[in-house]
Amino acid sequence: MPEGGASIPNTAASPAAGGAPDTAPAAAGGGGRTATPEPRGTTAARRTSLLVTLLLGGLTATPPLAMDMYLPALPEVTRSLHAPAATIQLTLTACLAGMAFGQLVVGPMSDRWGRRRPLLIGLAVYVVATALCAFAPTVELLVACRLAQGLAGSAGIVIARAVARDLYDGMAMARFFSTLMLISGVAPIVAPLIGGQVLRITDWRGVFVVLTVLGLLLTAVVWARLPETLPPAERHGGGVGEALGSMRRLLADRAFSGYMLVGGFAFASLFAYVAASPFVVQEIYGASPQTFSLLFGLNSIGLMIMGQVNGRILVGRVRLDTVLGLGLAVVVVAAVALLLMSLGVFGEVGLVPVAAALFVLMSAMGITLPNTQTLALMRTRHAAGSASALLGATGFLVGAIASPLVGIAGEDTAVPMAVVQLVAALVALGCFLGMCRPWNGRTGGKGGGV
Prior knowledge:
By secondary structure, this protein is mostly helical. Helix content is 74%, strand content 0%. α11 runs parallel beside α15. Mean pLDDT is 79; it is low at 1-48 and 443-450.
């Protein structure tokens, strides 16, 4: 396997539009994408590909780790720093906004200088910012540190997607994103559980200490084992002007912009759940931090299972646009059910029906998010870093706006969460139908080709 920044050459041609044969998954140590069966059949190639997949999964797990380990501690942070819930939720907003804007910078940087160098710098800064969060004496400083944490942590998110685009195409890319969802989906399961257990022996600051140690370990493994996937010959030599021009060309593609907005508003529905569920489950329904962590983990399991159904059963058999439309419809139905229960239409409901609706909504994300990213990235052969940055920044920006809205009516009602989720899901569905126009058969065929 290439060490110390050696490149994985990307030698195979991408599949042609309209159902050309899929490219094989990358063998990270043996020549990138390939259509020949021999490299895929070798033990060394499989081992190397698995290692790169695990590392990319670890990078995409950075956001849920940074967000979800902290969630059971939100009520405690509110008391510790003597701040209202809406202000404490700004610590989530700051992290999300940092991850959004950071991707717009890191994505084009990775197209120009390769994937490794910007990734390692971002991870190093992320570790420092996370350590500073543990010592923040005021909510204002905590918000500032969370912003820096998000800015630096964005490197792992955007570059993981760009590396996947370097190595995969067509159906292989759709399956790979579903695999990444399986790996990164473990983080939302274990993160609140770890956070809840950490709170048994220390306070909320100890959560950030654990995150710092995990960040150090990930940085060390990436430095030692993740090779460069963008050869120098394929890098962009231009500066800011070329990066902006590349993004402008991407945004001029109506279908790409449509998938970008679909993913962004789907993320908003998800982040509304992330920001509000600690207060809804613990403050309104009286659950303990450990019970909240268990329910949060169950929802993440649902997302993982549907991600694997998508990658192993649906991809290659059903048009990706069809699956995406189904996922959006389920999200809308679940959000409507949550709103009706929150408004008391069904009378006094307990935690179980609300948790069931949240489980359905989160599970539907397992077929919505990977297909959105795949369909968008399949429309760009070049500038994968810039495309990945636009996809990620849109999701985190819209999510950052949605997060504080869920606390606008205080801690005693779940109506704002349900309203934000429903509006975001309806906008996502509208963008899908109005901009992606799935019925024309050109944005996502049976194999999802464009």
